[in-house]
Design brief:
Layout lengths: L2 H4 L3 H8 L3 H11 L6 E2 L3 E2 L3 H15 L4 H9 L38 E2 L13 E2 H11 L3 H15 L1 H22 L5 H20 L14 E5 L7 H12 L4 E3 L6 H11 L3 E5 L8 H8 L13 E5 L12 E2 L4 H11 L10
Parallel strand pairs: 5-6, 5-7, 7-8, 8-9
Antiparallel strand pairs: 1-2, 3-4
Length: 350
């Protein structure tokens, strides 16, 4: 039978998505995001419906949705069990809030303190989230700035930058955005105030990263920029804070950076990597990304070019060109950059 009938291998689907095969296998083992049918009962073979599910997983995690929550949403993309055989290794889908999925599910998938009960007073579509997320949502709806600042400081101190972003900040921001989209022009003020406080907390975290010794030779930085017409900067601010925790130097250029300005910034700073954020496919500028990846600098005979990180859901749908990678979330982006500096790839959190 043809490959189309059997499905494609994990390596092939990883290349199509622009992620590593290890990431695909990890999603299967930890979150039950596996193929509906396995060749010979063991080997993963991915059908078009399975690939569509993985594409949705990539899109959600790249936009900041926690992996466990993204997996639950992504599984709904695949046809129901009546038209696709269930994956025996993955087990049945979760039947209630906090249900764990996949043979490798652990307490990290459903962290302590999560609850499926609706939080009083939030009015936001939060689902299964940490209690800190519900507290932040309630404070945001009340427009209680001091409470938001205190909660954000506490969650960063207790859980670290990556977990704070993936499991508290981003889910709350997504919930506010969904509420705003479904209720006309209401909650715009909530989104603005919450975004400002999240940005303040992230910049404070970036500013308190480990100091670089004055005698140390300055390392080439990482350039962080939104593509032209892209206004969403918070995910890049989270990346800047995560890299600051590692002592990695960054240059943040913010929202909607013109192509000419980005070109000048890359040539003048000689970065190790350039992270380009695109929230929607309408803003993803692939020709600009290729131009940045091909930009060489340095002395003749030892010229180098930066690694380009295609960050955000806007880049989904195409295989990254040479010199580019497409991380699926904050943790993976930090790991990719850390390897360039010879640092360990873990999150730095216990």
């Amino acid at each position: 039978m043809s490959d189309a009938a059997h499905g494609i291998t994990t390596g092939a689907v990883a290349r199509r998505l622009g992620v590593s095969p290890t990431t695909v296998r990890s999603w299967d083992q930890r979150y039950g995001i596996g193929p509906a049918v396995r060749a010979d009962g063991r080997h993963r073979r991915w059908s078009p419906a399975d690939v569509a599910m993985l594409e949705e997983m990539c899109r959600l995690t790249a936009s900041g949705v926690p992996p466990a929550e993204a997996a639950r949403a992504a599984r709904r993309v695949r046809p129901a069990p009546e038209t696709a055989a269930p994956d025996a290794a993955a087990g049945p889908p979760p039947t209630g809030p906090g249900a764990r999925t996949g043979p490798g599910a652990s307490s990290e998938d459903v962290p302590p303190g999560r609850t499926g009960r609706a939080g009083p007073g939030s009015g936001l579509p939060l689902g299964d989230v940490r209690r800190e997320c519900r507290g932040l949502a309630r404070a945001a709806v009340r427009l209680d700035g001091p409470a938001m600042e205190r909660l954000l400081q506490e969650v960063l101190a207790e859980h670290g930058l990556v977990t704070a972003w993936e499991e508290v900040m981003a889910p709350t921001l997504h919930a506010v955005g969904r509420k705003w989209e479904s209720s006309g022009d209401r909650y715009v003020e909530v989104e603005h105030l919450l975004s400002w406080h999240v940005s303040t907390a992230l910049r404070r975290a970036a500013a308190t990263g480990p100091a670089i010794a004055p005698s140390a030779a300055p390392a080439a930085p990482v350039v962080l920029a939104c593509v032209p017409a892209e206004q969403h900067t918070l995910p890049l601010e989270a990346l800047a804070a995560g890299l600051a925790e590692r002592g990695v130097p960054t240059r943040m250029f913010g929202a909607a950076v013109p192509a000419e300005a980005l070109d000048a910034a890359v040539r003048r700073s000689g970065p190790v990597a350039v992270a380009l954020w695109s929230q929607a496919r309408s803003t993803a500028n692939h020709s600009l990304a290729r131009h940045v990846a091909a930009t060489a600098f340095g002395v003749r005979g030892a010229r180098t070019a930066p690694l380009v990180l295609l960050a955000g859901p806007g880049w989904l749908g195409r295989t990254p060109a040479p010199g580019m990678v497409r991380p699926t979330g904050l943790r993976e982006a930090i790991g990719v950059v850390s390897r360039l500096y010879g640092e360990p790839t873990g999150s730095g959190e216990g």
